[in-house]
Amino acid sequence: MKNNVETAKNIIINEDFNLFKVLSSRENTNNPYPVYKKLREYDPVFYMKSPMGFLSEDLWIVTKYDHISSVLINKKFGRGNRFGKSKITAQNYSKLNALTQMRQHWVNFLDPPDHTRIRSFLNKVMSVKLTANLKPNIESIAKYLIDKIRSGDAKDDFELIRDFSYPLATLTVAEMYGTPKEDRDILDKWGSQVVRTLDVVTSQYTQEDLQLIYKSAEEIKDYFRKVVEERAANPEKYDDLISKLLTVRDNDDKLSVEEITSTLVLLTMDAHEAPKNLITNGIYALLRNPDQFDKLKNNPALIESAVDEFLRYDSPAQFTGRRTNEDEIVGGKEIKKGIQIICMLGAGNRDPEKFENPDTLDIERKNVIPLSFGGGIHYCAGAGLGRLEAEIGINSLLENFPEMKLKDKEYNYHASLHSRGLESLELSLNI
Ligand code: HEM
After folding, report:
1. Separation CA 219–CA 345 (nearest Å)
2. How far is ligand 1, taken at its centre, from the CA of residue 310, in Å?
3. Cβ proximity of 64 and 36 under 8 Å
4. pTM, rounded to two decimals
5. What percent of the chain has pLDDT over 70?
């Protein structure tokens, strides 16, 4: 297995160590786990000067499971209003670019009470019921894609992301929003530009990159503004997540069109990318562990614990951040107020103090609570939906293509920390 080679042998961790630079090399992007192991063993709460002052001048990198979960639930850690919401007035808001405007409303950047307000509206609409209602839609999307693969050219030249995990994730979003299926590629194109601004590994942009990011932010925001306005003008015609966001109330309070528009952009980026990677990383893990592949194929009822294990073993989200609201101690280190903490979820998920044989894929592992959806008040709003897509998607693939195999080639991951996913996964189906 080409990507399973032990990396990080030559990496020296000292005060000059730059995690993001190390993780941007092809070898470590493909397999960051040996680097995480070294860091966990060398110094699990590691101080690093921030490259180019990104996020804050000082960074603390946290790699152990227990430290990470304690940071995520601790109210002394917030997001730190990084984009200066408190300084924005109605007059200067309109002068901001679309990206900065949306960031004022993105729930992942907010602290209470702003976070509590938007998140409570979101929780009301992104309910367990919404996920349950979407189940038959996701099942028929999976069936449609499988039939297409069986009947089309794809069966001889099958690429999992293009032919299955990407369309499954994006068609699910189109169902949830009630937007035209054909719009999913352009939404994805815009979203994948905007999401680059959340990435600490690839966060060096040329002027051209920035122009493209700002233009994409403007276009996707404009797209959703029109969609929201159409539903506001014709409420009787729609019954989808967007119309629910328009009607949801908390006493007399409601979300503004601007807040709904921005939230839809955030949801689109999350819901296009992470479920796609969860399905792809899960299948890749199974194919490199044929005993586990056979186990799940022969007993599809194991899918719930299998998805927990895929989340733990190769999480689609490798980190999340917090900022100290006041001085605090983490793992014996004093972290001053206002400092950025990077919680390396992928490293905590492989912590041997929490999981026995952490580098082994075991779909029957008991009591796995992966860090992959974060925690505390920012715990992923789409966790139920993401899990469901992976459960349906992975079991459909195993049921229909029980003989699928990896091709004899090198498989590479995208150089990104924000989202961990393969560039492509070409498979032979033997059907
Ligand atoms: C399937 C795999 C997914 C993974 C691994 C994942 C992972 C994450 C992580 C790590 C966070 C940050 C949590 C924290 O900082 O504590 C997060 C937040 C969030 N996710 Fe997901 N996500 C997934 C799917 C989705 C989907 C399908 C949606 C939308 C439908 C979604 C919407 C969100 C939102 C809105 C937040 C921000 C929550 C807040 O700050 O209150 N995610 N997710």
Report:
1. 32
2. 16
3. no
4. 0.94
5. 93
Burial class (CB in 10 A: 0-12, 13-18, 19+), 203: middle
Q: Which amino acid is at 182?
A: E
Q: Which protein residue has the closest C-alpha to ligand 1 atom 41?
A: 378
Nearest residue (by CA) to ligand 1, atom 42, is 382
pLDDT computed for residue 295 by the predictor: 98
- Burial class for 95, CB neighbours closer than 10 Å (0-12, 13-18, 19+): exposed
Q: Residue 380 Cα, ligand 1 centroid: separation in angstroms?
A: 3
Tell me how far the alpha carbon of residue 311 lies from the centroid of ligand 1, in angstroms: 13
Per-residue confidence at 4, pLDDT binned at 50, 70, 90?
very low
The pLDDT score that the predictor gives to residue 27 is: 92
Please check the confidence at residue 93 and state whether its pLDDT lies above 90. Answer: no
- 195-254 confidence digits (pLDDT tens): 888 776 666 778 898 899 999 999 999 999 999 999 999 999 999 999 999 999 999 999
Please give the Cα distance from 289 to 285 (Å, whole number): 6
Per-residue tokens: 50:
């921030």
CA pair distance 208, 364, nearest whole angstrom: 48
Residue with the smallest CA separation from ligand 1 atom 6 is 373
Q: Ligand 1 pocket test: which of 81, 199, 349, 373 has the largest number of ligand atoms within 8 Å of its C-beta?
A: 373
Give whole-number Cα distances, 353 to 30, 65, 219, 357, 374, in Å: 24, 8, 47, 10, 19
Of 148, 55, 71, give the one whose Cα is nearest residue 374: 71
Query: Which domains are present in the chain?
Result: 2-428 (1.10.630.10)
Which residue in 341, 365, 342, 338 sits closest to 354, CA to CA? 365
- 372 CB near ligand 1 (under 6 Å): yes
Determine the atom of ligand 1 nearest the C-alpha atom of 371: 10
For 320-374, what is each residue's pLDDT tens digit? Answer: 999 999 999 999 999 999 999 999 999 999 999 999 999 999 999 999 999 999 9
CA 264 – CA 272 distance, rounded (Å): 12
Does the structure show a pLDDT above 70 at 281?
Answer: yes
